[in-house]
């Protein structure tokens, strides 16, 4: 199969421009995702650079070679920057511009400008370097990222290996001949691979950004915005999953139902800001005072719940008392303290049904309130 080089060149420019425009549109729609903006810059700079390089032979050879390749190297640098932004690292502008500046400086060397082989070699090596750096940005934080990065890593590494391999196979003489119309193999395969790589990496980056956004929206939907712990929906789902595991492993579990005492009076006397501060402080106290396998959440206005897997009634009472004591020591403002009443129920009494555990713990909580508040009561069936 013979590929028409000018057609492939124009198709490459068209596809880079189209993908860059689509990425720019996605960035403007998302507003907060800078990765898409950087990727748009990468693709559009690559399209412009390819267009300028294509002007070679129209009487502007020196400008075409110098400016076009500087734009292409800048595109590679911005692509590296896009991945740094995605993983939460600061932009390194000197590194982004280094390839383009190096090309510009080499352009002052007459021998460099007269040697096609040397120019192509330097350009390809810079592309391989930036591509490898881009892959490294993902690889170094692979355990912290919540999205699938394998497709992006595979594309980047294949792109780097392809460019390096093509350079090794073609060598100097073949590269020289391609501009004379005797051997278009290097340029043809490079354009074709660039075309396929641009399409693939653009869609993979879009998929990664979308996946992360969906995960963050889902996490936000299951988190109480004030206390930053799970809301009722998150608590219910996680608690039921832990209970199912306790059933499978034959282990007990216990539930604590906590209610801040005199919360309405606190709001009325000191304002809602103080009430909110009390909720935030208790939510933090609860989250820090439980084990990693425990589940806690704010399930009502001033009501919190905590499920303790693999804990019997005695352990639950100890945990509840520790939470009650820590709450009594909270000082929101000078002479403004809060207390909590806690009801405890265990699977020994209620079985492994979450709604029944909550109902029995609520009865125990009622006894704690009736008994004077600032106390822990266990359900006594």
Description:
The protein is α+β, with helices and mostly antiparallel strands and 381 residues long. The protein has two domains: 5-221; 232-378, Alpha-Beta Plaits (2-Layer Sandwich), CATH 3.30.70.270. 69% of the residues lie in helices and 9% in strands. A hairpin with a 4-residue loop joins strand 2 and strand 3 (303-309). The longest helix has 37 residues, at 185-221. It is elongated, with a radius of gyration of 31 Å. The relative contact order is 0.08. Mean pLDDT is 87; it is low at 175-183.
List key phrases describing it.
5-stranded mixed sheet; Nucleotide_cyclase; EC 2.7.7.65; two-stranded antiparallel ribbon; 14 helices; Rev_trsase/Diguanyl_cyclase; alpha+beta; elongated; 9% strand
Question: What is the compact description of this entry?
Answer:
The chain is of the alpha+beta class. It is built from 14 helices and 7 strands. It has 2 domains: 217 residues; 147 residues, Alpha-Beta Plaits (2-Layer Sandwich), CATH 3.30.70.270.
Blueprint of the fold:
Blueprint: H1 5-30, H2 34-53, H3 61-86, H4 93-106, H5 110-114, H6 116-139, H7 150-178, H8 185-221, H9 232-249, E1 253-260, H10 263-270, H11 272-288, E2 295-298, E3 303-309, H12 313-328, E4 331-333, E5 336-337, E6 340-346, H13 347-350, H14 354-370, E7 376-378
Parallel strand pairs: 6-7
Antiparallel strand pairs: 1-3, 1-6, 2-3, 4-5
């Amino acid at each position: 199969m013979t590929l028409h080089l000018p057609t492939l060149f124009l198709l490459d420019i068209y596809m880079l421009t189209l993908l860059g425009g689509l990425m720019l549109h996605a960035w403007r729609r998302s507003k907060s995702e800078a990765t898409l903006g950087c990727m748009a810059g990468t693709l559009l700079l690559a399209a412009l650079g390819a267009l300028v390089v294509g002007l070679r032979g129209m009487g502007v050879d020196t400008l075409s070679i110098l400016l076009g390749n500087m734009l292409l190297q800048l595109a590679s640098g911005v692509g590296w920057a896009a991945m740094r932004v995605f993983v939460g690292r600061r932009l390194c502008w000197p590194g982004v511009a280094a390839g383009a500046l190096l090309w510009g400086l080499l352009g002052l060397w007459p021998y460099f400008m007269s040697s096609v082989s040397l120019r192509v070699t330097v350009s390809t090596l810079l592309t391989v370097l930036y591509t490898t750096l881009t892959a490294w940005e993902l690889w170094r934080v692979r355990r912290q990222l919540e999205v699938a990065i394998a497709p992006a890593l595979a594309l980047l590494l294949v792109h780097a290996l392809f460019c390096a391999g093509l350079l090794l196979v073609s060598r100097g003489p073949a590269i020289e001949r391609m501009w004379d119309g005797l051997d278009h193999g290097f340029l043809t395969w490079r354009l074709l691979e660039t075309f396929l790589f641009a399409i693939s990496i653009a869609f993979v980056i879009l998929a990664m950004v979308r996946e992360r956004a969906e995960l963050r929206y889902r996490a936000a939907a299951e988190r109480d915005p004030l206390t930053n712990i799970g809301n009722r929906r998150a608590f219910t789902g996680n608690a039921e999953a832990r209970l199912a595991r306790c059933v499978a492993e034959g282990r007990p579990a216990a539930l604590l139902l906590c209610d801040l005492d005199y919360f309405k009076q606190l709001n009325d006397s000191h304002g809602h800001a103080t009430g909110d501060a009390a909720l935030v402080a208790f939510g933090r106290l609860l989250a820090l005072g439980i084990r990693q396998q425990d589940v806690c959440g704010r399930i009502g206005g001033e009501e919190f719940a905590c499920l303790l897997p693999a804990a019997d009634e005695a352990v639950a009472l100890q945990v509840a008392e520790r939470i009650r004591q820590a709450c009594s020591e909270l000082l929101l403002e000078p002479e403004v303290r809060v207390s909590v009443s806690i009801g405890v129920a265990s699977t020994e009494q209620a079985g492994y049904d979450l709604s029944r555990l909550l109902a029995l713990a609520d009865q125990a909580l009622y006894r704690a309130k009736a008994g004077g508040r600032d106390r822990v009561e266990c359900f006594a069936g």
